[in-house]
Structures are given as structure tokens and as C-alpha cells.
Amino acid sequence: MQPPKHNNISGKLGYPQVQAWIEHTKTNIKPWRLFLNTNYVKSPQSVSILSKRVVKNLEYFHSNYLFVFIGLFIYCLITSSLLLFAIIMLFGICYIVSKWHVNERLSIHGHKLTLVQLYALIGICSLPFFYFIGAGADLFWVLGASWFLVTLHAIFYNIDSVLCPGQEELDTLVIEDV
Q1: Where are the domains of the chain?
Q2: Residue 59: C-alpha distances to residues 30, 169, 171 (Å)
């Protein structure tokens, strides 16, 4: 009996938890028009509102924020040709090793290496190359830019106007009474 064939990438992955996470993330993407709507941009009135807003935005837009990170990562790859070349070479070597591994297995001191062990060995051997081309700086640029943009959006996007209209007026009344 053969396993069912899937047309999407999540069906090709061997880990059910990864498949479930990908499906969950895909179903939780909020409309980009809502995500980028500048009518909901407003500075928070107090620190307590700010902290609640950040938590609500992170929960509500987490899939969109993931795509912001992926977009910045792709931008970094496109603008850094050496990094793109090194990643293509790394995946090419892994592909060649996976095809070669089907016919014969590499053995070191009588111990046959599995495909996962070969991938780990390739990854470890590629680390100096990534270091020399500045992949660390690119990685921290992507992480920093993502953190900055996500935090900026989470602070200033008034999610209460979307989730429960009228909450903004109640918060203003509570602040004025105190």
C-alpha cells in the first residue's frame, strides 16, 4: 500500500507536527489590507494599553509577522549574491549526496553514515564558508529588521478598533477618570 500523494509542500514533509503547524499558520493569515490599514494606526494612551496591544497584535497577526520575516529573508538573499550562491551550492551538494546515498553508503571506520548524519556533516563543513561571506551579519540584519518592524506595527496598530469597536472610547474614559 502506498501513501497518498499530496500536491502541496506540507503533504511532502514527514513530520505531522510540522504539517499541522504549516496548516495552522496558513489558515491564520489575516488579510493584508487589514494588516496594512493605516486608519487603525494610533499611539497608545498608556503603558498598560501598550502592553495589552502588543500581546493582542502578536497573537492576532502572528502569521503575517512570520511572512514579514520571510520577506526580509528573501530580500537579504536577493541583495547578497554570495550568500545566495552559497545556499544554492549547499542545497545542490545535499541533493547530490541524497541521490548518491541511495546506491551506496559512506562508511567511516566501518560505521555506515545515515543521510541525516551526512547532512549534518555537510552543514558543519559549510559553516566556515558562510562565516567568510558574512552570513552572520545578514542573519542578524534580518532578525533585527524583523524585530523592529513587528514591534513597531504591534505598538501602533490599534487592534481593539478591529476586534471590538468602541473599546477605544472606553479606554479613553477610564484614563480620564483616573
Answers
A1: 51-162
A2: 11, 23, 20
The mean pLDDT values, 10 residues at a time, for the chain of 178 residues are: 47 73 89 92 91 94 95 93 94 92 78 88 94 93 96 94 69 56
| Residues facing 108 on adjacent strands | 111
Q: What distance in Å separates the CA atoms of residue 15 and residue 22, rounded to the nearest whole number?
A: 11
End-to-end Cα, the chain, rounded Å: 69
Question: DSSP for 114-135?
Answer: PHHHHHHHHHHHHHHHHHHTTH
* Nine cell digits for residue 148: 523592529
Strand blocks (E) in the chain: 107-108, 111-112
Max intra-chain CA distance, the chain: 78
pTM over 0.85: no
At residue 21, the pLDDT reads 86
